[in-house]
Amino acid sequence: MGKYFGTDGFRGRANETLTAVHAFRIGRFLGYYYAGTGKKPKIVVGKDTRLSSYTLEYALSAGATASGADVYLLHVTTTPSVSYTVCAEGFDCGVMISASHNPYCDNGIKLINEKGEKMDDSVIFEAEKFLEGGELPFASGKNIGRTVDYVAGRNRYLAFLLSLPRRSFRGLKIGLDCANGSSWAIGKAVFDALGAETFVTGASPNGVNINEGCGSTCIANLQGFVIDNGLDLGFAFDGDADRCICVDEKGGVIDGDGILYVCAKYFKASGELDGGGVVATKMSNFGLAKALEREGISLAFADVGDRFVYAEMARTGYLLGGEASGHVIFRKHETTGDGLVTALKLTEIVLESKCPISCLTEGYRPLPQVIKNISTFHKVEISQDFGVKNAIKEAETLCRGRALLRVSGTENVVRILMEGENLKEGIALVEQAIKEAEERLCAE
Asked: How deeply is 362 buried, as exposed, middle or buried, from its count of CB atoms within 10 A (0-12, 13-18, 19+)?
């Protein structure tokens, strides 16, 4: 991680730690960098529904066109649609303006390479150097770029989504919680077109209500919605719709680990689990490993972050991977997590299996687990603190299971994961060690 870019782009408080000036300079860098290919660069840009997304979109576009690139605007759309469009339409790179599951006051800039994958570290390194105060020449004359309204790109992505299911969804009642974010229009359009009776919540964005009491990080909203409307299943997305959490017909939650189990078991039975295995992360529930082992399915582990999951999938040749948070990658179709693709796949599996989705998760029993976020501006130092490391070891013995401490790549927090017994006591032990480390660091 650099000064500006973490595991999932440049993220910060809008107009405070992430400003229009940053966006302008990132645009300047991208336009200039890709002009080195010898042709006029083409950059596709999408954004979510945050109030600040407009400022960052226009600033980034101004910078890129000033460096000689043509910028194609998808407007409000999902992160996966930008990734898809880059690949399908031959763009040099893509940019998504979104802070994903964060509140509206935050925003982010995600960079996507020409393969539709997270931007290469070497390019991020050069962008970081320019953000620190580099200078670049401006394009002039006919070399100045332009912006293009590119709604056609979003329509092609919709056509791609509609091409995935092999049968109609007619007869199913589907609930969608769109988090007042990127999927608010796309999600209903897709499920309606496939014949489902679609019920939507979290689909009234006003610029400041993205992820507020709804979406994949507030699943209780969808649980009540599914029960109240007697739905067959429901899907909750995050702000940029690269995550999906499922709710079954009984109101039970199926997170990313549960989704991986359902899909892996189905794909194995239908002969579609190429490579014979699945990729999860170190934060995935160990119950997933046990459940997949009983089904004869291999499980490989990656660091947290869908870019690392995808890299491990490419290394192993596995076509299915994901995170408990709801990033699920179907490598046959895309290079990143896509909440809408996940929802379509699960709906199809329910239809093909001819049973409620609650039945499909019966073989998976997650172990008791707690994840606690602790805010800190010393996240890296705390993760390396000797006292904190010892506390993690003691907590692991106490809970007779697993204890992990992870530094967030997108927020100023460290995450404690504890799995097993005595979870409350184990968490308290690590929290105290972190508090003491924080006090030492502040005193220095």
From this structure: exposed
Instruction: Please state, in angstroms and as integers, the Cα–Cα distance from residue 74 to each residue in 43, 69, 120, 182, following that order.
Output: 11, 16, 23, 11
Q: Residue 115 contacts by C-beta under 8 Å, 6 or more apart in sequence?
A: 86, 87, 335
Distances (CA, A) of 411 to 13, 297, 301, 324, 379: 10, 34, 23, 18, 9
Q: Collect all residues with Cβ–Cβ distance below 8 Å to 436 and sequence separation of at least 6.
A: 387
Residue 410 in contact with residue 5, Cβ under 8 Å? Answer: no
Query: For residue 5, what are the β-bridge partners?
Result: 10
- In the set 52, 61, 67, 100, the catalytic residue is 100
Q: Which residue has the higher pLDDT, 340 or 419?
A: 340
Q: Tens digits of per-residue pLDDT, 244-295?
A: 999 999 999 999 999 999 999 999 999 999 888 999 998 899 899 999 999 9
Q: How many helices (H) and strands (E) does the chain have?
A: 15, 19
In 84-139, DSSP assigns E strands to 93-97, 106-112
Place of tokens 């605007």: 73
Neighbour-count burial for 392-406, b at 16+ CB within 10 Å, e otherwise? beebbebbebbbbbb
Q: What is the number of residues in the chain? A: 444
Left if phi > 0, otherwise alpha if psi is -120 to 50, otherwise beta: which for 432? Answer: alpha
**Residue partners of 400: CB distance under 8 A and separation at least 6:** 420, 421, 422
Distance CA 23, CA 18 (A): 8
Look at the alpha carbons of 404, 409, 414, 417 in this order and tell me if their dihedral is positive or negative.
Answer: negative
Tens-place pLDDT, residues 173-204: 999 999 999 999 899 999 999 999 999 999 99
Look up 100 and say whether it is catalytic: yes
Helix (H) / strand (E) element for 75: namely strand 70-76
Q: Which of 191, 234, 190 is nearest to 214 (CA)?
A: 234
* Radius of gyration of the chain measured on its C-alpha atoms: 22
Q: How far is CA 346 from CA 119, 151, 352, in A?
A: 29, 28, 10
Tokens of 369: 């687990």
Q: pLDDT of 333-375, one tens digit each? A: 999 999 999 999 999 999 999 999 999 999 999 988 888 888 8
Is residue 79 classed exposed, middle or buried when 0-12, 13-18 and 19+ CB atoms within 10 A define those classes? buried
Residue-by-residue DSSP string for 274-334:
GGGEEEEETTS-HHHHHHHHHTT-EEEEE-SSHHHHHHHHHHHT-SEEE-TTS-EEETTT-
